Amino acid sequence: MSKSASGKGSSGAPTGAGTGAAGGKDAGGRGSKVGTLATLTNHGDPAAAAALVALFPAASRVESYQGDVRVHVAPAQEVELIRRARDQFGYDHFIDRLGADRGPEADPRFDVITLLGNLRTGKRLIVVTTLPEDEPETPTLCAVFRGADWFEREIYDMYGVRFSGHRDCKRILMPDHFPDFPLRKEYPMEGRGEFAAPRRALGGNVDGKDGTVAIPSQPGRPGPPTRDPLDRTGAPRP
Amino acid sequence: MSISRSQNTNRGAGTSLPGTRTLDVEVAEDRHAESMMINMGPQHPSTHGVLRLILELDGEEIKRCEPVIGYLHRGKEKVGETFSLHKFIPYTDRLDYLAPLSNNVAFALACEKLLGIECAPRAQSIRVICHELSRISAHLLGLGAYAMDLGAMTIFLWTFRERETIYSLIERICGARFTTSYTRVGGVERDLPDDFLGKLEAFVKEMPGRVDEYEAMLSRNKIWVKRTQGVGIITKEQALQFGLTGPNLRGSGIDYDVRKAHPYLGYEHYEFEVPIGTEGDCYDRYLCRVMEMRQSVRILEQVLQTIPAGPVLNRDGDGVLKSVLPEKTKVLTNMEALIHQFMVGTTDVHMPVGEVYFSAENPKGELGFYLRGDGQLTPARLRIRGPSFANLQILTELLPGHMIADVMAVLGSIDFVMGECDR
Fold first, then answer.
1. A124–B39: do the CB atoms touch at under 8 Å?
2. Are the Cβ atoms of A222 and B34 closer than 8 angstroms?
3. Structural domain boundaries of chain B?
4. To the nearest whole number, what is the mean pLDDT of chain B?
5. Within an 8 Å CB–CB cutoff, is residue A149 touching chain B?
6. What interface predicted TM-score (ipTM) does this complex get?
7. Which residues of B touch A205 (CB under 8 A)?
């Protein structure tokens, strides 16, 4: 078994690296027998994507790999395209919204990718919009899918992409005072050393930028009392 | 498949909505009244991990809820960009750490989709066993901890009895109880031991009776019914808007299960039903999980009948030699296999240029991986779509209007795990 495997290895090695780079169309025919790969690569609906893109012809195109259909759209039209996908094409299940970085040399650099599901047909749609490195900003999706809220906060947290119109686009996974955007390619894997946390950030219910929590106080009502948790002087609370 | 609810309640199904619930005593408007901020967690027992909830209360009623997450953030997506696909498998154990085998399976399938590699037929059946065993195990823990949060200690001990059996089985499969790292691209790490299928059969025979026991303790229990029915109602519209998946979505009456919508691992060949709730309250989500356990047992019965013989790693097909590791037993005894292992392990797999998204139906919901390859040795982007992340977000809309004592009922019914939420 292993002998034949290594024998094939010498002959198959030169072509092996390039096998996956082909487009999605040949995916079903790859492999010697029909197995589950065919069931993994039937998630997209190219016809619906083409019809959707036809509504936004100037700034949209369709790509496909392994059966996943990706619609590329300009940032200004992204929300409208997703709204149309939801209302006219039945993609009413919000699955995911994620960021990606193509590296400091690439322009445009950042991707914001949205995954939608169609519960009736079971098909999926991937919407991609690309943003430049300087001041990456795109309109929020919260008006179409309320669940985009946290996902956009995570994209901001990891990539520094801002979402105009977002309710409260602050960090979500990293500490509030973290100085970097860790999923950017130039951020080193081992980090950039320790950083000093503001003392007040260790407490809860602190209003202001350095606190871990800032729930805005309601109009007409006094805000929550603030106090330095490391204050051992016993001074009365404000 | 619709689920039958117990009606042993004086509240009547569907009459009480959380938004309309008011305090019994009318409270005179007090302009000096302050709302109270309560900090729940990150070390609160009912938050099952390190979730922190900041609640604003008016009396005992919740006005606002702000979940604070990120305490368990380990930068897995960053790590994924520096490792080859094989080396990332152990990291998937720690996503939903209550169902590590399920995470392994989902990640292996995502890699196979990206690389275009078939899984060996026997390994497919083994993966189904892994998937369903860990589903039962995760639901057992979810149910036991949920019941304990609401004061029913017995269930917790009973479910851990069965979980012990499952962990013994998992130990037989891959040698580890918890950090399994069992799947490989193109198959699984090793074949099942000879005595495994017999032990699994015994478990499969025993389990339906055990589920009956849990149901006898809870489904018509007056306290349980009163604590969960009509509490934490998630509407269909909310569930779709917030991207809920798994039992939380199905509890709201939406028939969506990845195993049915996009059958993978040959799930289209197994007969099973998807339990669907009617009201969308905590009780429905509880019932969905209990009935899913029964369906998982049903799937396991069929796997036992149909599991084929053969190798557990794909050995023929394009690109296999570059990406599929040899069997470990051969590596230890055979020079060519050792060289093969060394080559795959050191030179790694060159990623194809392309992007795929694959998701599997995990116990908590849809665990998805978005992989982007750019021809390098490591993925350019490895996104983990943890179902608990989306499932937790709905708390901001779900909890206001509830009593503070209902928080435990709602949290337990959402059944989240912070490992995959914070990643």
1. no
2. yes
3. 76-314+350-421
4. 84
5. yes
6. 0.82
7. 37, 39, 54
Structure tokens at A68: 């996943």
What predicted TM-score, i.e. pTM, was given to this entire model?
Answer: 0.79
Neighbouring residues of B420: CB distance < 8 A, sequence distance ≥ 6: B95, B96, B103, B364, B367, B384, B386, B387, B388, B389
SS (H, E, C) chain B: CECCCCCCCCCCCCCCCHHHCCCCCCCCCCCCCCCEEEEECCCCHHHCCCCEEEEEEECCEEEEEEEECCCCCCCHHHHHHHCCHHHHHHHHHCCCCCCHHHHHHHHHHHHHHHHCCCCCHHHHHHHHHHHHHHHHHHHHHHHHHHHHHCCCHHHHHHHHHHHHHHHHHHHHHHCCCCCCCCEECCEECCCCCCCHHHHHHHHHHHHHHHHHHHHHHHCCCHHHHHHHCCCCCCCHHHHHHCCCCCHHHHHCCCCCCHHHHCCCCCHHHCCCCCCECCCCCHHHHHHHHHHHHHHHHHHHHHHHHHCCCCCCECCCCCCHHHHCCCCHHHHCCCHHHHHHHHHHHHHCCCCCEEEEEEEEEECCEEEEEEEEEECCCCCCEEEEECHHHHHHHCHHHHCCCCECCHHHHHHHHHCCCHHHHHC
Q: What is the largest CA-CA distance in chain A?
A: 80
B76-314+350-421: what fold? Cytochrome-c3 Hydrogenase; chain B (1.10.645)
Q: What does the pLDDT look like over B21-53, one tens digit per residue?
A: 444 444 545 555 677 888 887 777 666 778 888
* B240 interaction partners in chain A (CB closer than 8 Å): 92-94, 119
Tens of pLDDT, residues B164-176 = 999 999 998 888 8
What gap in Å lies between CA B247 and CA B346, rounded to an integer? Answer: 41
